[in-house]
Design brief:
Blueprint (H helix, E strand, L loop, with lengths): L2 H10 L1 E7 L8 E7 L2 E9 L13 H15 L7 E6 L2 E7 L9 H5 L5 H14 L9 E3 L5 E3 L26 H8 L3 H12 L1
Antiparallel strand pairs: 1-2, 2-3, 3-5, 4-5, 6-7
Helix pairs in contact: 2-6
Length: 199
């Protein structure tokens, strides 16, 4: 399914909740989204199901979308397509569900050196977006062979609060291709816009 069709479905499709995702601290639902004869699965996080945190303002759904927009602006395509829209339980984020190998997570993926470039990119993404919640299970090996990042509701804090399981690349220089992307953008304005949206 191409990106244009995925976007149409996420923005305009009928959303049916199939069930609640286990082990989630906030209300997180697996859904089927249908538009015409096309369907896909998505993850829906309604704002009203968000658990308050002392160190973050409400707006997890906005930050999920902002993380996707940052990933696309960088051209790294780490975060599955994510939109903000009304759903069965009110306004929230709706993200393309990634079919993944559930036996894989960051620590198993790191064991294969062929994955290191993708994991370095995710590490750089987390630094730029100030991710405070990169868990091992937030790294998914999709059936397409790519590593995807999920659960980005705790990014873009005004204070530096990096919390991550990805420490194996600590002390390395940022790879030149990643650095070239970062220095080619007018990040102060772009990041400010994303942070304002995320709030």
């Amino acid at each position: 399914m191409d990106d244009a069709l995925v976007g149409t479905l996420l923005h305009h499709g009928d959303v049916e909740i199939l069930g609640r995702m286990p082990w989630s601290s906030n209300a997180t639902y697996l859904c089927q989204v249908t538009c015409g004869g096309d369907t896909l699965r998505a993850i829906y996080k309604p704002r009203r199901g968000e658990r308050p945190l002392w160190d973050f303002p409400s707006g997890l759904d906005h930050r999920e979308v902002a993380a996707y927009e940052l990933s696309e602006a960088l051209g790294w395509h780490i975060v599955p397509m994510t939109v903000l829209r009304e759903g069965p339980l009110g306004m929230g984020s709706l993200q393309l569900f990634i079919e993944a190998d559930v036996e894989q997570h960051y620590f198993t993926l790191y064991e294969d050196e062929a994955n290191h470039d993708q994991l370095r990119t995710m590490c750089a993404f987390d630094l730029v977006g100030n991710n405070t919640d990169r868990k091992s299970g937030h790294c998914l090996l999709g059936l397409d062979g790519r590593i995807h990042g999920i659960d980005h509701g705790l990014m873009f804090h005004q204070e530096f609060k990096l919390r991550t399981v990805i420490w194996e690349f600590g002390g390395e220089e940022v790879p030149a291709p990643l650095l070239a992307v970062l220095v080619s953008h007018d990040w102060p304005g772009n990041v400010r816009e994303l942070r304002n949206f995320a709030e």
